[in-house]
Design brief:
With 256 residues, the protein is of the alpha+beta class. It is 18% helix and 31% strand. The protein has a single domain (2-255), classed as Deoxyribonuclease I, Chain A (4-Layer Sandwich), CATH 3.60.10. The protein is built from five helices and twelve strands. Helix 4 (153-168) packs parallel to helix 5 (190-196). The longest helix has 16 residues, at 153-168. The chain is globular and about 45 Å long.
């Protein structure tokens, strides 16, 4: 059995989603100093085999120039890491690569299994455009896709169409996961699921369908793990964690 967790850690700012949290502007620049260790301790207890992190800082002055994906990979004894800055080097977005904090805003995928066939896809539209693709053998070949979708509904719809094309070009089993920002509800994924035949793992056990944002009182579902039909889901759970304005999602699975 393999355990995978996806978690939007909000650059370790430690905001749990109260409206007044977002008035604490200083936390963007000076996050809680012990939060990183608390996150690492949290992951150690859960013992994931694969960990996908959304909104992680690769080393700005906010983290005192520490590469957080590398630090977490080392502390959790993972053997492979792929991370990628979310913003493409095109049009006005190239300016983000020179901003003190934005230049290091990334997503990351780490694993106890070797990651290979690594690719990076860029959506045609949106500010956040990067999709990480990587394969692992656990023990059969599995391709992982990590995405953080746009805030705008029309742009998000176009990105989901592009994701469907990426999934359909993969011949082996697939897990698509990330923060999809589905502000209009889970039905935003209907077309994606219809075109790819991916399965929304939360719907396999209706007793465990939970919202994931904001973490202090979840009223929206933003974070997903979708699997292809050859994946047998053993357990799905939205975890109780107050390190971010999102809640992490955990999946235990094996191959059919």
């Amino acid at each position: 059995m393999t355990r995978i967790i996806v978690y939007n850690i909000e650059y370790e700012e430690g905001l749990v989603g109260h409206w007044y949290d977002y008035l604490k502007i200083w936390k963007i620049f000076f996050p809680p100093p012990k939060l990183n260790q608390k996150l690492i301790d949290f992951f150690k207890k859960l013992k994931p085999d694969i960990l996908a992190l959304i909104e992680v800082d690769k080393g700005s002055f906010r983290t005192k120039y520490k590469d957080i994906p590398q630090l977490i990979e080392h502390k959790l004894n993972f053997t492979s890491l792929v991370d990628w800055v979310k913003y493409p080097f095109v049009s006005f977005l190239r300016l983000f690569h020179f901003a003190p904090i934005l230049s290091n805003q990334s997503n990351a995928l780490m694993s106890k299994y070797k990651l290979y066939d690594v690719r990076h896809h860029l959506f045609k539209e949106g500010t956040k455009r990067s999709v990480i693709e990587a394969s692992v053998d656990c023990p059969k070949k599995l391709t992982l896709l990590v995405a953080h979708l746009a805030l705008g509904g029309k742009t998000r719809e176009k990105q989901l169409d592009e994701l469907a094309k990426i999934v359909k070009n993969i011949k082996n089993e697939v897990i698509l996961l990330g923060d999809f920002n589905t502000f209009h509800g889970v039905h935003e994924l209907d077309k994606l699921i219809r075109n790819t035949h991916l399965i929304d793992t939360a719907k396999l056990d209706y007793s465990k369908i939970k919202f994931t944002q904001p973490s202090w009182h979840p009223i929206r579902r933003m974070d997903y793990i979708l699997v292809s039909k050859g994946i047998k889901v053993k357990d799905y759970e939205v975890l109780d964690a107050k390190f971010s304005d999102h809640l992490p999602v955990m999946l235990d699975f094996e191959f059919k």
